[in-house]
Please model this.
Amino acid sequence: MSADDSRFKEIAFQGGLNLLLADKTEASTSTDSRNSAGKSSMVELVHFLLGASGSTRNPFTKRALRSITFGLDLDWPDVTETLEVRRSGARPAFVTLQPDVTAPDPDSLFALETQGQAEVPIEQWHHLIEHRLFGLRGDHPGVSGRTLLSYLARRVSAHGFNEAGRTFSRQPAADATTNLAYLLGLDWQLADGYRQLAARDATRKQLRKAVNDPVWGQIVGSTADLRGQIALAEAQVERLQGQVAAFQVVPEYEHLKDQADELSRRIKQLSQDDVIEQYNLDELQQAVIETADVDTQYLQPAYRELGIVLSDQIRRRFQEVEAFHHSIVRNRRRFLEEEISELTARLAERRTERARLGEEQAQLLRQLDEGGALEALTSLQQALAREQAALGALRHRYDAAQTLESSSRQITAKRIQLQQAVETDLDEREQQTREATLLFSRFAQALYGPREAFLAIQAGRESLTITPRIDSDNSRGIGNMVIFCFDLTLAVLAHRHGRGPDFLIHDSHLYDGVDDRQLRAALQLAADVTREETMQYIATLNTDDLAKATRLGFNAEPYTLETVLTDSPTGGLFGFRY
Model:
């Protein structure tokens, strides 16, 4: 472990047991503390280099440390030398790998040669860790490389030492046991079923709360109403789809439409002209009826009765006037009849013209009715898209309503089915559970002698439960040693069966309150197991705690690292306080 800052205390780890010590200086007073020496920071730095979040809460993105590039050399599968990992808080979204292990070397059959380097996005680094260190392939919902690493390097900042089964205080049980199942060789996919059911139940509960919202019905609605609305929307979509499929684009559509409009205007004008001339015709016909000769026969008898005798001259004048009047009447009647004849002829011509124009208009309208313009097709397609979107929204609302209305009994029934399936699987995997239990028991008895210690693994109602137990007085020290034995069991089993790397890291907080004898036994057990399994165990300790173990016969010299941290201002891991 290194950094490009000369003040940083480089650490060279070795195979087997590694003890990183924190000591007090001669100038230390009773108020000085080794909590700032950097023991926990070393674990945090390992996580940072192995892909921990580069959020603003990460200490390595703070102003005091962000300009420093930190490094870690790893033994990596199929790499002949070590893999150098570099990461800086200034660019937390990337890591630099030397050599580039993102793709196999095409010129090598078995191993990657040290060549070049690659700046890799942190998400790709996560994938490489999951694939190469934990053997995860394809999709693996519920199992995360970052969570698996947290069991092999617990962090005090995440309250990782509160209980054995969780790596942070609010970790859901179903999430934790899915990852534990993977490390132990159980069916993690079955275990993940609990997580999926928990997510479904949480969604149902949230939707149930929303029922009290007065606008709930407008936003989602009931499944009964939505079924009817979906049926209508589907019918509308089908109708529009049929229209689009049958639609034909008529050539020169706009020109034909203009012709039809012009014909309509001409027919309308002819009709208006007919109204006027029909009125005139009626007037002329009435005038013909009223045009008649005046009867003058009554004049001579009238004059005789009056005793007036008309002379021949006067009678001739009357006859001339009568003849003139008859001539005027005949001329007027002839004029009126000619006008009537012309009007009748024009009305007949208009009827013929209207019929012809009507026929032509009908033909154009038939052409237009068979199809339309390209713009009309586009509008029809847009209407179809809007209806399809509306139908999709209705179906989403239906899914939400269905989720809400699904009975909790259905989820309960699925839980029962899942619990039975997990119980059956545990019976079939008796070899794996037996290996884990015997290994944990061996580790616990190495610390506490012949007392009952085992792993309680069972299918619970809410999750698969994996509980390490040591018959004890439940003191804090024994609780910490339960975590020690449990983590060592996980690490050994995962390494043996290719489901995990070959290291385990514990912070000195794990040994707080632990009896001197158990501390010595734990360190000796770690040394023996890592040697047997060809693994690496890294522990940080205060020198006075290690002294308690050495007084009881533990030989720490082969395992103590050269780098020693102190509580002085420059003696910590980073060489300065921040």
About this structure: Residues 28-34, 105-114, 248-253 have pLDDT under 50 and may be disordered. The first helix runs from residue 39 to 49.
